Task: inverse folding
């Protein structure tokens, strides 16, 4: 697919038309306060993996509603003093998978915490282990329209809250330096990273790659690929609800979280990305509040973005922030 979105010079100036709800901060303040009313109850159980250079823990912590959320914590073998931490969120449809598939960040000397995404893990990878016990009004298959009737009910209210609690769980481990914590992720994981970056004020770094869940008003009208297309397909059936749906989604739009992001940030975008169009990524990047920010652009890539090349960029970038 050739370039289909705005040219790069216009992307660098693009601003989203997404309207921020007046009670955005109050909504998220109440949501996190309610979540913290449940004990974090973070548990770290050693796992036998037959890997010689890392130690893995099976993690369980209390997320939204006190619901148990799974994860992996991987540490370099022989760690005795607290390490800077990288908390990672997973792409759409995937789960935490198997422990031995997450070795990059621990190999680089970091404590690495991977959060399982509630209700997901059935589409690719090694599976997930975290159910989502909350029901939904009628929705289009997928996760985008679950609870679309109101922001209080939407699926990503639970997921973003889980993400904040995952940072708190990682920081609770004695071998994690809580003052040096970064969040990373690709696609949905990038979108969760943007949200957590706006909700956790003292992160040391944020690195979202081709982030999903940004600039909903443009995304749902620009691309016909899933997962954004789930929203359009829902509205094909539920005619006349566009305004209500976009209002609900505005509480989960990465653009508004980005406006609260204070940590140094490294984004990436791909100019042929039809899943997360580059203008939606630049909408979040341009809104990111911190002055210390950069974006890597991959001219001829689709949603795979920079892949291992972007990993190399992050490996070079993170040490100066952690």
Result:
């Amino acid at each position: 697919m050739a370039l289909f979105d705005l040219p790069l010079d216009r992307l660098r100036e693009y601003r989203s038309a997404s309207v921020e709800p007046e009670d955005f901060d109050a909504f998220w303040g109440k949501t996190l306060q309610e979540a913290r009313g449940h004990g974090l109850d973070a548990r770290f159980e050693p796992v036998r993996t037959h890997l010689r250079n890392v130690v893995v823990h099976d993690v369980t912590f209390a997320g939204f509603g006190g619901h148990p959320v799974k994860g992996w914590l991987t540490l370099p073998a022989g760690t005795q003093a607290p390490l800077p931490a990288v908390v990672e969120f997973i792409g759409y449809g995937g789960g935490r998978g198997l422990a031995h598939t997450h070795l990059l960040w621990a190999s680089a000397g970091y404590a690495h915490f991977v959060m399982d995404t509630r209700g997901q893990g059935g589409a690719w990878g090694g599976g997930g282990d975290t159910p989502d016990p909350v029901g939904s009004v009628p929705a289009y298959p997928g996760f985008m329209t679950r609870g679309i009737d109101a922001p209080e009910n939407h699926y990503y209210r639970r997921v973003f809250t889980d993400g904040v609690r995952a940072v708190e769980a990682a920081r609770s481990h004695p071998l994690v330096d809580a003052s040096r914590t970064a969040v990373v992720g690709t696609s949905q994981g990038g979108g969760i990273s943007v949200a957590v970056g706006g909700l956790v004020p003292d992160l040391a770094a944020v690195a979202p790659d081709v982030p999903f869940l940004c600039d909903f008003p443009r995304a749902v009208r620009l691309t016909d690929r899933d997962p954004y297309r789930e929203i359009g397909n829902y509205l094909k059936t539920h005619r006349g609800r566009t305004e209500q749906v976009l209002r609900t989604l505005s509480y989960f739009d990465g653009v508004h979280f980005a406006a609260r992001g204070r940590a140094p940030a490294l984004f990436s975008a791909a100019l042929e990305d039809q899943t997360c169009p580059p203008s939606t990524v630049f909408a979040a990047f341009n809104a990111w509040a911190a002055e210390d920010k950069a974006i890597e652009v991959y001219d001829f890539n689709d949603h795979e973005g920079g892949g291992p090349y972007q990993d190399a960029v992050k490996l070079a970038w993170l040490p100066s922030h952690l």
